[in-house]
């Protein structure tokens, strides 16, 4: 798959298909945070559709803030953010339909089993029960045996795996992954790499926040550093640079 | 249609959680039993006072239990960021509210019906020939109470000092509910005055209707970023 | 109350406004305390009514307007509506508190108790509790937009409860033997002069409300401006590296 320069026009597409020249995520003058120094101090960013971009930076740099903002869970103090042309504030519902998030926390109900959590997520995302292969998803993330156990009894790695399964429920064209490698064992981290590689092949746009720079180098097309409330491109990685 | 499905899934989720943890049931049943007992002591063994105060004690017990129930119901959503994840999905925010409301209402109404004969027995008050009305009053009263409690519990869930803030915010709003419910059930138990009970019941139903619309409409401003 | 850019300097007409309201207040006081007749039954005590009832009415208006401006904020999202809503809430709290003081002042000599469960007085006490809740919520939220929205919601829910609170308190009272005298003088035929004086004092109370609103909204605008300037000040507006494209 080739990635040419991206056209600088308002892009409003629905799916990953034929989206190579689209801008999937666009930030303009984006500010977040109140009182004192803002967490994000005016970001201008275009992420082309189908790109895998790793956000790198120290704790508190604003990676999670940016991902939550794109996931419509935070509102910019100033500036705009759009996902496939839809404003994260004014058209939040449209954005939500196009975004799947992997939160840094588990995000599942402890009193329900892994399987029940997936069914709930599917139903609330408006998916018909017959199109969702819950057993298959559990198998994919290695939770087949723990599927009927309550999430309360899960380890943090298992919670992460369940969150990954939830990510795979939908065919959202944009993935927002917050520390996907954290809490996972070698196996789990390899699973994340595989899922991201699959997502790239399917043309999804992936924004991935991670401390693990070497690991991100292996999966991302570009690495952007978030520091001091600003963005800086660390590396554009071609097809060959990835192993 | 999809929205209705979402409402039912949320309600089902809350009830399933409750069926497993029984956190709300244990806390509210125990707490309301203690409240009824303490108030019985406060009335000081005066049988007349006990009889007339029976329904008042019942609704005080229900009100305190209702606060616990509503706060507890959001607690599970806050754990491990489950609500945070859920709100990132394309479902109407009102569906979350209505779903949780249904679950809370069901639990509160069941508790109220359970407490009716207990309060009657404990306070020596004969529920009277029109005890069926009492069930209707409990259903309408707990709906009004749950409408406000679930709404404000959701509002305070993300604020500091939420435990102390919830009663401060909600009790002035639910005063008419409590007054109307106490008066309506008192009219049944004390004097079997159906006309008076009906007047108060109308106030309850009016409150329920107005707040069902107000709270459902406004809820998105409570949770939206 | 137009949405002009921050009027940092206090306009001269505000002073003129107060200079005009001042004498009207003096006239109201004279009418209420001296010119109006003594009541047949209550004697000079009726004079408390002129201050008490007018303040109570304006208190209700203030709380109603808090909800109305709140609803406007939810609808249009203009910062000015939130500022007006909060300003009116402060007035609502102040006037309700004064209403309770007035009610107690009247209640002590007539009924020999500081508190009666009169429907309107009970309602006012609930209003004070609702407004206190409103300000507690405001104080807990840093993000100005979220603060505006949530407090607007609280104001609307609170205002919607007032008719029910009133009905409940009124009915509740009527089921008791009449222990209390209605504190608004309803049921008492009012002398024409008395009614005229009451209307005049109400107008003056309304003008005082309006004056405080204008002052408070002006200050609120400046506060909002400052808050926004702080956020802006911490942001470098032009990205030195331009748009990052990946």
Describe this structure in words.
The complex is a heterotrimer of chains A (243), B (225) and C (246). By secondary structure, chain A is α/β, with parallel strands linked by helices. Chain A has seven helices and ten strands. Chain A has helices spanning 63-70, 92-98, 114-124, 134-140, 156-167, 186-201, 213-219, and strands at 23-32, 40-48, 52-56, 78-83, 86-87, 99-102, 174-178, 205-209, 222-227, 230-236. In chain A, the strands form two sheets. Chain A has a six-stranded mixed beta sheet with strand order 6-7-8-3-9-10, with helices on both faces. Chain A starts with 22 loop residues before the first strand and ends in a 7-residue tail after the last strand. By secondary structure, chain B is mainly alpha-helical. Chain B has helices at 2-21, 23-42, 47-78, 82-86, 93-122, 131-156, 162-191, 194-223. In chain B, helix 1 crosses helix 5 (93-122), helix 2 packs antiparallel against helix 3 and helix 6 (131-156) packs antiparallel against helix 7. The radius of gyration of chain B is 18 Å and the shape is globular. By secondary structure, chain C is mostly helical. Chain C contains six helices and one strand. Chain C has helices spanning 12-35, 46-76, 79-111, 119-140, 144-174, 192-233; one strand spanning 244-245. The longest helix of chain C has 42 residues, at 192-233. The chains are: A alpha/beta (243), B mainly alpha (225), C mainly alpha (246). Chains in contact: A-B, A-C, B-C. Chain B binds chain C through residues 148, 151, 155, 159-161, 165, 168-169, 171-173, 175-177, 179-180, 183, 199-200, 203, 206-207, 210-211, 214-215, 218, 221-222, 224-225, and chain C through 74, 126, 129-130, 132-133, 136-137, 140-141, 146, 149-150, 152-154, 156-158, 160-161, 164-165, 167-169, 171-172, 175. Strand 2 of chain A pairs parallel with strand 1 of chain C, so a sheet runs across the interface.
